[in-house]
């Protein structure tokens, strides 16, 4: 109801302004008013100076943005290939900045210099082969260089030799969560299909497959060892997802019906990243903001926010549904020794499935229910 009243008020206000405009036009009858639609020298001068003003706004806002939000960018990459990705991004930003600086200055300067004047006459020529050659060849060379460098970096990242010592981990995406499956000591994942999903076997692993006997699955968080190349096999149960690990500069789509992959070597453990000076400063800034928000929540009788602690995260970078924003999984990078200890404690999927389907033995203090008592209970339930 309130929204309807607001809409009615806005409509009436618009009608009132329209009527006032008509009244104002009527008051101008008999006066000399320049109502021509052709721009004069004054109009052109104003437009020319406005172009310079807009140019100043662009650069002032750019500098302001770098100062205000520059510290929010990701810190040091936590994977071997991350430096190549950051370098490629840095080169791209430099090229964009140079081109933007030159073209924007020329655009706004020429808009001012060649603004309309009565005594000026535009110079017309049909074409200029030299200019067309310059503005076609130079961008082509620059873009070709960026593309070739990007392909080189991408090939190095994605290439995995068949004989290379890697650890295979599957990331299984589904609305709206993740599950990780480890290949076990044989380093080969068992076959999987959504038709095999049953009980604790939520990844659809074929438990009859010999390669699946040592597979292990985890939810909530998953661990990987530092210094070991991890080959991630990616699957999706339902819709298109995207496995995004920003601190490792890694992202790959998870497509229903097919397996995609991505590989990288983690170089910084979670503990070491938490102690990184840049990360410590970021966490301090975040907790300062959360403290201010918590004060407001407490004043309103609500629970305060918990202090933020840095963790690597596996995110979904595709809008996959209503809870897409909450589709994430904690990723922990351990030392090799800590990882071995962690993974050793996890049961195999086959053992978990057997345990979940094993018949439960009655407890020692459980008393058998007499037939008469059972009949009595059933009668009471029916009566209800």
How would you portray this structure in words?
The protein has 384 residues and is of the alpha+beta class. 46% of the residues lie in helices and 15% in strands. The protein has nine helices and ten strands. The strands form two sheets. Strands 3-2-1-5-8 form a five-stranded mixed sheet, with no helix packed on it. It has a five-stranded mixed sheet with strand order 4-10-9-6-7. α2 packs antiparallel against α3 and α3 packs antiparallel against α4. The longest helix is centred in the N-terminal third of the chain and has 32 residues. It is extended and about 100 Å long.
Primary descriptors:
384 residues, alpha+beta, 5-stranded mixed β-sheet, 46% helix, extended, disordered C terminus
Rg (CA only):
33 Å
Protein structure class: alpha+beta
**Portion of residues within helices:** 40-55%
- Choose one word for the global shape: extended
N-to-C span: 43 Å
Strand order of the largest sheet: 3-2-1-5-8
With helices defined by DSSP (H or I, 4 residues minimum), what is the helix count?
9
Mean pLDDT over the residues: 86
- Please give the number of β-strands: 10
Uncertain regions: pLDDT < 50 for 5+ in a row?
369-384
* Major sheet: 5 strands, mixed
Q: What's the SSE pattern?
A: HHHHEEEEEEEEHHEEHHH
Strand composition percent: 5-15%
């Amino acid at each position: 109801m309130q929204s309807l009243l607001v809409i009615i008020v806005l409509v009436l206000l618009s009608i009132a302004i329209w009527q006032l405009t008509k009244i104002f036009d009527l008051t101008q009858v008999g006066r000399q008013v320049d109502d021509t639609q052709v721009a004069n020298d004054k109009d052109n001068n104003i437009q020319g100076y406005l172009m310079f003003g807009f140019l100043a706004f662009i650069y002032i806002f750019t500098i302001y943005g770098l100062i205000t939000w520059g510290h929010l960018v990701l810190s040091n990459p936590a994977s071997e290939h991350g430096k190549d990705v950051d370098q490629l991004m840095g080169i791209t930003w430099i090229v964009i900045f140079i081109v933007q600086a030159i073209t924007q200055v020329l655009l706004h300067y020429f808009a001012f210099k060649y603004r309309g004047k009565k005594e000026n006459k535009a110079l017309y020529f049909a074409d200029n082969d030299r200019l067309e050659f310059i503005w076609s060849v130079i961008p082509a060379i620059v873009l070709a260089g960026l593309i070739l460098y990007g392909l080189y970096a991408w090939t190095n990242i994605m290439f995995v030799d068949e004989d290379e010592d890697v650890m295979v981990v599957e990331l299984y995406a589904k609305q709206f969560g993740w599950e990780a499956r480890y290949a076990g000591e044989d380093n080969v994942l068992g076959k999987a299909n959504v038709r095999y999903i049953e009980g604790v076997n939520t990844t659809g692993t074929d438990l009859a497959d010999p390669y699946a006997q040592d597979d292990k699955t985890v939810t909530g968080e998953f661990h990987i060892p530092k210094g070991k190349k991890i080959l991630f096999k990616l699957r999706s149960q339902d819709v298109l997802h995207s496995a995004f690990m920003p601190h490792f500069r890694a992202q790959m789509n998870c497509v229903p019906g097919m397996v995609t992959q991505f590989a990288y070597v983690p170089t910084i453990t979670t503990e070491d990243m938490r102690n990184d000076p840049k990360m410590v400063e970021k966490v301090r800034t975040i907790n300062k903001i959360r403290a201010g928000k918590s004060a407001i929540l407490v004043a309103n009788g609500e629970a305060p926010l918990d202090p933020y602690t840095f963790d690597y995260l596996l995110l979904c970078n595709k809008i996959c549904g209503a809870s897409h924003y909450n589709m994430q999984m904690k990723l922990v990078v351990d030392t090799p020794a800590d990882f071995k200890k962690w993974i050793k404690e996890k049961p195999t999927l086959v053992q978990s499935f057997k345990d979940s389907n094993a018949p439960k033995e009655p407890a020692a203090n459980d008393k058998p229910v007499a037939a008469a008592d059972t009949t009595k209970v059933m009668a009471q339930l029916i009566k209800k």
